[in-house]
Amino acid sequence: MNLVGHLRCFVIVAEELHFGHAAERLGMAQPPLSQRIQRLERELGVRLFDRSSRRVELTAPGRLLLDEARDILTRVERIYSVAERARRGEAGTVRAGVPSDLGGTIVAALIAAFRDRRPDLRLDLRETGTAEQVRALADGALDAGVVRHPCDSRELELGPMLAQPLGVLLPTAFSLPTATSVSYAHLTLPTN
After folding, report:
1. Cellular component terms, GO, for this chain's entry (predicted)?
2. Mean pLDDT for each 10-residue chunk of the chain (192 residues)?
């Protein structure tokens, strides 16, 4: 049995909850799709879908297995991505994203630390925002990234956190109480 192919069919049917739409999306006829799902159910020893003439629903085991199936498919795509990079001669490259406003000192420190730890690998840095990095990391287009929080990190493995102090620039005519910190209330401009 082609487990990866069967899992791909399972995920598409679970997303569509309709065998006809899933078959169309997969570019195959409905009967072979139904047979693949039945073979997968036999192999796993659980029923994945409740089927009737009017609807298709995931069973409790199907709901449990859906995230695992998606994870396996993501990992398989990464394997193909790594193999493709190796075929193109990019196997020794780490693709990393950094925000464009990270600052030269921090970027230089990250590059130096990377070279100290992994002199055998080439670092390919790309300036990109957090949302785009999260998508690229999930898709396998990036291997690592420096993201700004808050962000959706459910699919990411987080490493060390960097902190950057924030500052406020004000016009010289702006009066503030003499204090070591500034609150948002201090920054409210008077209205006329």
Report:
1. protein-DNA complex
2. 94 96 96 96 96 92 95 89 75 86 85 86 89 88 86 78 73 67 68 60
